[in-house]
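Please decode residue identities from the backbone states below.
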């Protein structure tokens, strides 16, 4: 990944992780508070139950004139009885002896003081104590933090995987654009170098030969083709035009325009052209024909033949070049896609062709056999 991709990757990853951590922190805190409250209520209810039960036993024993029966206490709960003089007559109290009824927290201890005995058998207060709540809360806190840690770890892994998936199409697109820039740089280098050589020769000789002028003309046309394609790909929305043109005349102009380029490779352009019209701007028709003809020339071997026909509203351009692999035939109309690295190119010609055909209802078909040639057919409405 380049620097831009890395920044995008880590920005997405960081945003996902931070937002997820914030979410699980809120959920974890809410769960902890709810469970802590439930534990507190459960503990208080148990203590109140014990206090009410022992108070009832004290009152019942006093009314019957007998001794109080011993009471089995739940595990983790201790009991103390305070007489009317404020002395502990049974059990043990952590800290100071309470004077009034209520519920208290004392150094990790929960204490419930009940005055329900009403001084029966000389007992004024029943004190129920436990330290289990503090232990349960510590255990709950560890459990919640542990679960949050595991979830956070899983979120980091998921975030990493999602970030990779998120960046995959971005990476592919960036790679396409970088390849496009490299390809177009290479494409521009060829005609520019040819122009430099031609002008240098003309300056040295003090005159411009027919061959030098031809080279300058061909290089200039190559540069203009690149410029025209890039201008069409400026991503601005273009409105449909209702201009009716003579397809045969535009096609003849395009063939004449590319004839010098074909001659440099000693390629014969065999044509059969009948009159035809179509609703299509001449500039886009020229771009449409130009891309197909220039591709045919580019991917044809020297001393070969290209057949171009326009009959019955059907344009056929057939070459005998390298052909296109069947596995790549569905991809070649995509932007920046190239079926081969043979003879340069920057992967936008056929995407422009497809875009124009789709806009004006022109059906396009492809028949290609590797090492035998390619045939494009355009059915004009």
């Amino acid at each position: 990944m380049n620097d831009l991709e890395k920044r995008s990757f880590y920005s997405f990853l960081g945003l996902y992780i931070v937002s997820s951590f914030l979410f699980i922190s809120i959920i974890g805190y809410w769960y902890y508070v709810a469970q802590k409250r439930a534990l507190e209520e459960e503990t208080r209810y148990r203590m109140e139950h014990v206090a009410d039960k022992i108070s009832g036993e004290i009152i019942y024993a006093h009314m019957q004139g007998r001794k109080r029966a011993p009471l089995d206490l739940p595990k983790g709960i201790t009991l103390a009885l305070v007489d009317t003089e404020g002395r502990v007559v049974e059990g043990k109290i952590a800290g100071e002896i309470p004077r009034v009824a209520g519920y208290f927290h004392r150094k990790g201890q929960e204490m419930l003081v009940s005055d329900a005995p009403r001084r029966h058998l000389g007992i004024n207060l029943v004190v129920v104590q436990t330290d289990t709540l503090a232990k349960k809360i510590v255990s709950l806190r560890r459990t919640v933090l542990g679960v949050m840690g595991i979830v956070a770890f899983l979120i980091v892994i998921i975030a990493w995987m999602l970030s990779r998936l998120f960046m995959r199409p971005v990476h592919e697109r960036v790679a396409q654009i970088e390849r496009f820039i490299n390809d177009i740089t290479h494409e521009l280098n060829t005609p520019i170098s040819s122009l430099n050589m031609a002008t240098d020769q003309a300056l040295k000789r003090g005159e411009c030969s027919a061959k030098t002028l031809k080279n300058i003309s061909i290089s200039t046309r190559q540069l203009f083709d690149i410029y025209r394609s890039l201008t069409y790909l400026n991503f601005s929305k273009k409105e449909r035009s209702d201009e009716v043109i003579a397809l045969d005349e535009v096609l003849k102009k395009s063939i004449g325009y590319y004839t010098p380029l074909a001659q440099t490779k000693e390629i014969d352009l065999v044509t059969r052209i009948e009159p035809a019209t179509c609703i299509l701007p001449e500039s886009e028709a020229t771009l449409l024909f130009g891309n197909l003809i220039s591709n045919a020339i580019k991917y044809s071997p020297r001393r070969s033949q290209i057949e171009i026909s326009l009959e019955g509203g059907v344009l056929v351009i057939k070459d005998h070049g390298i052909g296109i692999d069947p596995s790549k035939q569905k991809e070649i109309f995509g932007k920046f896609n190239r079926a081969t690295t043979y003879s340069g190119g920057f992967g936008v010609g056929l995407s422009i062709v497809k875009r124009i055909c789709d806009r004006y209802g022109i059906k396009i078909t492809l028949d290609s056999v590797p090492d035998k040639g390619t045939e494009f057919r355009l059915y004009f409405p």
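Observation: The chain has a mean pLDDT of 83.
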